[in-house]
Amino acid sequence: MLNELVKRLWAQKPDRRGADRVRAKFGIAWLRGTELVPAHGIEISEKGLLLATKEPPPGPQLEVALDLAGRRIRARLNVTRRDTLTRDGVDWTLIGADFQGIAADDWDAVVRFCKQRPDPGNKAADELAELAKTDDDAYRLLPLKVQERVVQTLVAAGRLAPASDAKNPLLRIAYGGPTRTGGHVLLVHSRRNADGEVLLFDSRITVDQAGNVSLDR
Questions:
Q1: Helix (H) or strand (E) holding 155
Q2: Residues 99-115: pLDDT tens digits?
Q3: In this structure, what are the phi and psi dihedrals at residue 125, rounded to the nearest 5 degrees?
Q4: Which is nearest to 29 in space by CA: 57, 2, 69?
Q5: What is the rounded distance in angstroms from the CA atom of residue 136 to the CA atom of residue 172?
Q6: What is the pLDDT of residues 152-166, one digit of tens each?
Q7: String of b and e for 93-108 (b: at least 16 CB within 10 Å)?
Q8: In this structure, how many other beta carbons lie within 10 angstroms of the beta carbon of residue 144?
Q9: DSSP 3-state of 152
């Protein structure tokens, strides 16, 4: 079994994690552009996770989508360990990684899963979930500097209130795909209050490879 091979391979390696790890199978895929590359979740803790993939992701960081206790979670990971093993003639890459970017409510779900705590499911939790929708996963996964530039650009265009906080702006973002020059397109729905009226805006923003932000429309 893959899990047994993983256990034997990593048993001799020092464990530098400060959080309890839970050995459990869970669905996970890593993002290659807009493509989801399937993998196998093996372990998870409140600080990070371990996965196995037939196609090794390049670079020290990757974005993933995982299914945990019936919840779809998006996160950005920082790779800390990488090993390879062969099972039934198939080469696997083992990736150990720490969470670098994850929505607060999704991280709460990870902690509950690791500590075997039930979902609170109360009114307060529902209200917090509604508030979290003003700052969705796509926005949270952006680097902080890019988040700030997106907010500044929308404020300058009058599509967000001047005092908008980059940590909790009144906007939602969907990924629009890559550009021909290696940048990325963001589709932004924002709103602001003006003289008691709520104004809604749909914007198209491009982020280049250097993290510079431009408003296309």
A1: helix 144-156
A2: 988 887 888 889 889 88
A3: -65, -40
A4: 57
A5: 6
A6: 999 999 998 888 877
A7: bbbbbebbbbbebbeb
A8: 10
A9: helix
DSSP letter string, 14-57: ----SS--EEEEEEEEEEETTEEEEEEEEEE-SSEEEEEESSPP
Query: Which pair of tokens denotes residue 83?
Result: 């090993």
Distance CA 197, CA 193 (A): 5
Check: CB of residue 85 under 8 Å from CB of residue 17: no
From CA 97, how far away is CA 118, in angstroms rounded? Answer: 25
Cβ atoms 52, 93 nearer than 8 A: yes
Cα distance between residue 16 and residue 84, in whole Å? 20
Report yes or no: 215 and 157 within 8 Å, Cβ to Cβ: yes
- The residue type of 60 is P
pTM of the model: 0.51
Instruction: Give me the amino acid identity at 121.
Output: G
Q: Judge contact between 166 and 151, C-beta under 8 A.
A: yes
